[in-house]
Amino acid sequence: MHYSKRGRVTVVALLTLFVIVNVPMFMSYLPISTAGHDLVFHLYRIQGIADAFKEGQFPVRMQYSQLNGYGYPVSILYGDLLLYPSGLLRLLGLSVTSAYKVFVLLINLFTIIITYFVGRKIFNSVMMGILATYLWTLSPYRLEDVYLRASVGEYTALLFFPVLFYGLYSMFFDRVDRFGFSWIWVAVGSSGILLSHTVSVILVLPVVVAFIIAGLIRNHSALIWKRLFASLGLSIGLTLWFLVPFLDFYRNVDMKVGSLSVEEKNGLGSAPCASAVPVVYAFCANEGRKC
């Protein structure tokens, strides 16, 4: 009886969170400013994926809906595997904005489910799992990514951060990793981040390296090394279809990122960091931001 009651409380708490975090998506328009942010670009990506599917591309490499039909190889340098369902919905007749809304709803849903699972496992507590889920799902930076910046790749990558962390944590703590699946969690988490937002790999790498070093100091048995190499091998296997064209394009095509001067790179790097205050804009109108 106690377990059943606790289960009901958990379901109600997570469903409440799902409703709260998705309130802007229930509006009749996209509650995201199009000025200076990424929304239009990502709507074009969804349309480009749908058009590429119609032309028989799989996986998608070139999106001909962009640049007045000349096309743009977005998919080579920007992983869009998780946008494929939205592309299919667009192909089936949904508007591109509705397809995007479904994508946001699904990302929020899986963020809640995965974070709760990870939090409950690590802390061995239902209440701590719920608390961790609320803190991660409603974190100001994540909400700003979703509802202000429309940074699809970045908030999709944030979905896989708990997966990667749980894999690394369980790899070095036998109490959690009783069945030896930690290397799979690490591979899925790291692959998901890479296939969602390449830049996030650079952001998370120092933390991962520091965690592994600390973990190896605690436990550097042969089994741990086997799991580390197994996770590396599986990660490469899961992402090779994306990495090969990515590296080939990056090496052989003259792109702006490779021709910027040191001063220009420093200027871009010193751009203002994200602030929690603009999150309130998620609940304001598109034009004029009148709440």
Summary, kept brief:
The chain is an all-alpha fold and 291 residues long. Among the domains are: 32-94, no CATH class; 150-255.
Give the tags.
disordered C terminus; mainly alpha; 291 residues
Describe this structure as you would to a colleague.
Helix 2 packs across helix 5. Among the domains are: 63 residues, no CATH class; 106 residues. It starts with a helix and ends in a 22-residue tail after the last helix. It contains twelve helices and no strands. The longest helix has 31 residues. The chain has 291 residues and is mainly alpha-helical. Helix content is 66%, strand content 0%. It comes from Bifidobacterium callimiconis. Keywords: Membrane, Transmembrane, Transmembrane helix. This is Membrane protein 6-pyruvoyl-tetrahydropterin synthase-related domain-containing protein.
Structural class comes to mainly alpha
Overall form: globular
Q: Strand tally, please?
A: 0
Mean pLDDT: 83
Helix content: 55-70%
**Beta-strand proportion:** under 5%
Could you name the ranges where pLDDT drops below 50 across 5 or more consecutive residues? 272-291
How many helices does DSSP assign?
12
Largest sheet: none
Rg for CA atoms: 21 Å
> H/E series, N to C?
HHHHHHHHHHHH
End-to-end Cα distance, whole Å, is 45 Å
Topology, please?
Blueprint: H1 2-21, H2 39-55, H3 74-77, H4 84-91, H5 96-123, H6 126-137, H7 140-147, H8 152-171, H9 182-196, H10 198-218, H11 222-252, H12 262-269
